[in-house]
Amino acid sequence: MKPFDYARASRPAQAVDLVASRDEAAFIAGGTELTNLMKDGVLAPGLVVDVSGLPLSDIELHEGRLRIGATARMRQVADHPMVRERFPVISEALLASASPQVRNRAAIGGNLLQRTRCGYYRDVGSPCNRREPGSGCPAIDGQNRQHAILGGSDHCIAVHPSDLAVALSALDSVVLTLGPDGRRSIALKDLHRLPGDTPHRETVLRHGEMITGLEIPESRAARNSRYLKLRDRASFEFAVVSVAAALTLRGRVVTDVRLAFGGIAPRPWRSAAAERALRDQPLTDATVAAAGRALVRDAEPREHNAFKVELVQRALADILSDLGGNR
Amino acid sequence: MSDMSKDGHSRRSVLKAGGVTTAALAVPGGVAAAAAPPEGTAPASTAEVTLTVNGRPHALTIECRVTLLDALRERLGLTGTKKGCDRGECGACTLLIEGERVKSCMTLAVMEDGREITTVEGLARGDELHPVQEAFIRRDAFQCGFCTPGQIMSAVACINEGHTRSCEEIREWMSGNLCRCGCYPNIVDAVRDAGNGAGR
After folding, report:
1. What tens digit of pLDDT does each residue of B116-169 get?
2. Are strands A225-230 and A65-69 parallel, antiparallel or unpaired?
3. With a CB-CB cutoff of 8 Å, which residues 155-194 of chain B face chain A?
4. Residue A20: CATH number of its domain
5. In whole angstroms, what is the distance from residue A21 CA to residue A281 CA?
6. Please, what CATH class does the domain formed by B11-18+128-195 belong to?
7. For A71-104, how does the pLDDT look when each residue is reduced to its tens digit (9 = 90+)?
8. Total domains in the fold of chain A
């Protein structure tokens, strides 16, 4: 790890000022991501600003919206009785993430900003357009079993690793930030950019802009929500494919459905097409299959990941069967 | 007294042994929720920190890039906490901060200034091993032993958290600790024994 200056912020605005004051500055909260990236030389900030002690860790329901502070730990949110009862997909996604030790430490804001697990990105000996713009993407013709089938570009096909972000995407969550230009609310679906020809620009956040919290609207669908994660081992592993689903039925007819997918795209992949195929339709094998086909219509599988096209449709069918009872 | 083993270790004494308190259970969220507003510090590449390890305060001047793991091993000579992958993937460096298990390779020592840290060296009371240590020996829950300190610290927390109701639950909640020798069945047995108050 290269040497850096460290400062502990006493107020959010001070943290923003400190990071904004230096080009090579970064926030740290849980530390479970930045420490690894610094050790590997993927990131080398000259200043690290500790926001872990800021009073931004509350979890509360306010006028029909769940508010989660950015420095709340994964475990706190996963264990929270109100989250478990009214937003089960969030708790399930968190409990399917990382390990108990990491969940005790990793902060909610940082979870959304974690970097891809693409091996080429993490290995500074490899070219990577995301890490070093213009250096190339070895994944496109290389080891791409873990990579994207949707939303990638000729410059990058890395997938976003956060389970939480997938769950939040399904629930129309909003990210609250504080930056040098003041406060902003950003729809979670707009937080992460698709790679296009600038994969190194991962989010819409500006330098010095800090996530201070999240807001998630309550809904009947959110109460009937689930997270399904398929991975190469049963625990402590990133998703090969995952689905966050929230569903409301009247009789057998779908009145509300929200579907987001992980492991298949460079950002949490909310599929309006799959939702359209189900909304106001009876929940049957045929409509579920149609939703799956709509989801993968534009899929561009690579040499080693074509199996994800089938797997993600099966995952969708499985979770809808669970949420909707027997069909 | 059905929860008492024959030498008088109850489940409660398993939790309490070695100064590991149940505070993390009483306050949801533990450290983060209980923290007072932070005192800010100015940017600097070194810092004066006090790490309270196994009840003993240690004042150090330390480079800010030093992980808690390296500070313990290289500066304080506490080599019980092991450095395996140094990337948070193996769990060998697991210890307790304010009673919660964390991976010490993934946090900077400067971030833990003033916190109570418990390492594997802090579990035994003199010659009397902690019930989880006893259970690991009785169940032969290791071969090479390199992952064992991390397994034991993780197990202490796993029991504190109440995640030992079944073997399946233990496997899930111990999944952050890898054992290259493959002693998992015996580790699960040891954690279940200690969780049931049958550590010896």
Report:
1. 999 999 999 999 999 999 999 999 999 999 999 999 999 999 999 999 999 999
2. unpaired
3. 157-158, 161, 163, 171-173, 175-177
4. 3.30.43.10
5. 54
6. mainly alpha
7. 999 999 999 999 999 999 999 999 999 999 999 9
8. 2
